């Protein structure tokens, strides 16, 4: 396969924070439409890895090619990648001074140069998809955590991204709100979106993922399809981790 | 143990109104003025103090004062026996207090400028007016018209008026409003430069801010009035008022920059990251996401700086510009009006208090209006 057939191709990527070697020799190829779940203990570098994909973190060695564009210091290319890659954060990061609708239309209007009316129509479409169109004129502070995270997903989708990154989207939520967010993510997966999800929701991984990646100490330790990954983990560290989170 | 008797089925407790709260005047007085013996005593002492201070003050300022019927201090005293204020000298010299020594025949230009500035303020401050499309251009254009109208220009057939004729409240407003309008964008720029990751910007901004903040305004004004002419090529005539405006503006901008930097530092990193992840460029993310939030947090500090700047305009009297204090000092030096210091300073204090209190109230209103957290 040529580079263009991959949604994301990470090749021998390394990253340091100062002297600390956080990511070591990361190799990952994600085909279009593939759903990947990344898990691992905290501090293992999973978030850092997906944050490298839209250059919220800079890598120091190796290549990252996203949608055919190589990430370098070139600001134009970074912007190009960011336009095509949506991201959801653990703490939602909605813009508190804007209404829900304005949160969703901001980037389409200012980055894509879309007309306001068109952007609003698209935004309402996605807010309906995440099942909160009635909250459009409220401010983020008036919504529950689960609702805010669904808005954050809608906000990313309004840019019509080809790839979605999820950085522990349910870790900051109250237990009863996790399902509503996972449902939205499951819907999205079934529509063929390329997704990389850092999450500890193993039920979601089993049900939706095409591949599960286990990271520890800045390295990819094991990767496999969900069934063999959970039923028959190969590496000792994977076994330990799974035994700790699957009680 | 006997089973607890419940008057409702478990989980079906009805919603009840809160127990009746007392209300009314008596309740308010008891809660706020006499909640305890100690507070009650303080309340009584305050009331006695006010009883002895307020009525005489009121009599002096209003009841026994003379405004229109006197042309000198002696005439005032003849009427009220020296028991009340003699506002007459402010009434007689009103034009000087407002315009300084601006020629009488040209004062219509100042009056029009006052109206234009008032319109600018309304556009900037009133939300409904601000939303009219294209009106923000007027905010740029109107002050420029004023800046041409007041000093005048031969080209337009307006007799030039030298800036040393400016004075009074007109001068205060010119310095204060120029300082406020111009220093805010410069302050924002300096704050962004100071936190920039590019060393040229951050080093320059830091040096600039620390230098300006480390020097008293009065020193900067002296530099403007005297020292600067040594550095300028001989023969250049760089207007004193313009030099003062520049100094006041950069002084205020340096303070604003630090206030705004504080606001920027309070914005969570996630906001920057979310803006980046959506593909917004640096300027767009600043303008649309970061600055609206940072400025909102900084409102109290920004308005404090503006109030400080507005009051500091009185310092220009030291380098010989005739602000209301300068006009007033000249007025009470007049043999007809000697020894009217109380009236003069009360009058000027009231003027500044109204302006500054107005700014302070507007900032509170703005904070409430922009509050979207719940």
Question: Mind explaining what this structure looks like?
Answer:
The complex is a heterodimer of chains A (247) and B (374). Chain A is an alpha/beta fold. Helices cover 38% and strands 26% of the residues of chain A. In chain A, strands 6-7-8-3-9-10 form a 6-stranded mixed sheet, sandwiched between helices. Chain A has a 4-stranded antiparallel sheet with strand order 2-1-4-5, covered by helices on one side. Chain A is globular. In chain A, 49% of the residues are buried. Helices cover 68% and strands 0% of the residues of chain B. Chain B contains 16 helices and no strands. In chain B, α11 crosses α12 and α13 packs across α14. Chain B is flat, with a radius of gyration of 28 Å. In chain B, 28% of the residues are buried. Classes of the chains: A alpha/beta (247), B mainly alpha (374). Chains A and B meet through α2, β6 and α3 of A and α13 and α14 of B.
Structure characteristics:
heterodimer, A: 247 residues, alpha/beta, globular, B: 374 residues, mainly alpha, MetI-like fold, 16 helices, flat
Q: What is the compact description of this entry?
A:
The complex is a heterodimer of chains A (247) and B (374). Chain A is α/β, with parallel strands linked by helices and 247 residues long.
How is this fold's topology laid out?
The complex is a heterodimer of chains A (247) and B (374).
Chain A lengths: L5 E12 L2 E12 L3 E5 L6 H8 L7 E6 L2 E2 L4 H10 E4 L11 H11 L5 H14 L15 H13 L5 E5 L7 H16 L3 E5 L3 H7 L2 E6 L2 E6 L1 H6 L4 H10 L2
Parallel strand pairs in A: 3-8, 3-9, 6-7, 7-8
Antiparallel strand pairs in A: 1-2, 1-4, 4-5, 9-10
Helix pairs in contact in A: 3-4, 3-5, 4-5, 5-6
Chain B lengths: L24 H8 L4 H27 L9 H8 L7 H5 L1 H6 L7 H19 L1 H4 L5 H14 L18 H27 L4 H15 L3 H15 L8 H26 L3 H9 L4 H31 L11 H10 L7 H30 L4
């Amino acid at each position: 396969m040529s580079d263009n057939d991959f949604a994301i191709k990470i090749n021998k990527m390394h990253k340091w924070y100062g002297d600390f070697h956080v990511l070591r020799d990361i190799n990952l190829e994600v085909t279009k439409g593939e759903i990947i779940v990344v898990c691992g203990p905290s501090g293992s570098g999973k978030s850092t890895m997906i944050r490298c994909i839209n250059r919220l973190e800079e890598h120091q060695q190796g290549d990252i090619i996203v949608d055919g564009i190589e990430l370098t210091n070139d600001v134009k290319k970074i912007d190009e990648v960011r336009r095509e890659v949506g991201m959801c954060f653990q703490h939602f990061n909605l813009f508190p001074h804007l209404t829900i609708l304005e949160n969703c239309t901001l980037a389409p209007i200012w980055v894509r140069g879309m007309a306001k009316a068109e952007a609003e129509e698209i935004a309402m479409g996605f807010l309906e998809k995440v099942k909160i169109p009635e909250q459009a004129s409220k401010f983020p502070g008036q919504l529950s955590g689960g609702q805010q995270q669904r808005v954050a997903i809608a906000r990313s989708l309004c840019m019509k991204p080809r790839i979605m990154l999820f950085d522990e989207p349910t870790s900051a939520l109250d237990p009863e709100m996790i399902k509503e967010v996972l449902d939205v993510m499951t819907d999205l997966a079934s529509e063929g979106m390329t997704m990389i999800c850092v999450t500890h929701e193993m039920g979601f991984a089993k049900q939706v993922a095409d591949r599960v990646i286990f990271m520890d100490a800045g390295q990819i330790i094991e990767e496999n399809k969900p069934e063999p990954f959970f039923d028959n983990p190969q590496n000792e560290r994977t076994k330990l981790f799974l035994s700790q989170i699957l009680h | 143990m006997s089973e607890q008797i419940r008057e409702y089925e478990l989980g079906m407790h009805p919603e009840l109104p809160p127990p009746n709260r007392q209300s009314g005047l008596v309740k308010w007085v008891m809660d706020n003025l006499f909640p305890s013996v100690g507070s009650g005593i303080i309340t009584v002492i305050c009331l006695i103090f006010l009883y002895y201070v307020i009525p005489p003050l009121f009599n002096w300022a209003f009841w026994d004062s003379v405004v229109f019927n006197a042309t000198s201090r002696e005439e005032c005293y003849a009427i009220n026996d020296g028991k009340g204020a003699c506002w007459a000298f402010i009434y007689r010299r009103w034009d000087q207090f407002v315009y300084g020594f601006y020629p009488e025949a040209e004062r219509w230009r100042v009056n029009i400028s006052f109206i234009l500035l008032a319109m600018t303020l309304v556009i900037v401050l009133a939300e409904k007016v601000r939303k009219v499309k294209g009106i923000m251009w007027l905010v740029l254009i109107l002050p420029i018209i004023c800046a041409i109208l007041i000093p005048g220009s031969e080209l337009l057939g307006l007799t030039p008026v030298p800036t040393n004729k400016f004075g009074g409240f007109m001068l205060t407003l010119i310095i204060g409003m120029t300082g406020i309008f111009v220093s805010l964008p410069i302050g924002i720029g300096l704050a962004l430069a100071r936190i920039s990751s590019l060393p040229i910007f951050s080093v320059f901004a830091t040096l600039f801010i620390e230098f300006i903040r480390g020097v008293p305004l009065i020193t900067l004004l002296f530099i403007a009035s005297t020292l600067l002419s040594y550095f300028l090529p001989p023969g250049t005539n760089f207007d004193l008022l313009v030099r003062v405006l520049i100094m006041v503006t950069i002084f205020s901008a340096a303070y604003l920059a630090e206030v705004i930097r504080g606001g920027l530092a309070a914005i969570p990193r996630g906001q920057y990251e979310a803006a980046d992840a959506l593909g917004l460029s640096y300027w767009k993310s600043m303008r649309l996401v970061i600055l609206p939030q940072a400025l909102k947090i900084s409102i109290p500090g920004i308005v404090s700086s503006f109030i400080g700047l507005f009051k500091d305009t009185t310092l220009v009297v030291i380098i010989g510009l005739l602000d209301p204090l300068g006009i007033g000092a000249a007025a009470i030096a007049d043999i007809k009006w000697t020894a009217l210091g109380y009236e003069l300073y009360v009058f000027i204090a009231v003027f500044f208090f109204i302006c500054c209190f107005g700014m302070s109230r507007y900032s509170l209103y703005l904070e409430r209006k922009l509050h979207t957290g719940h």
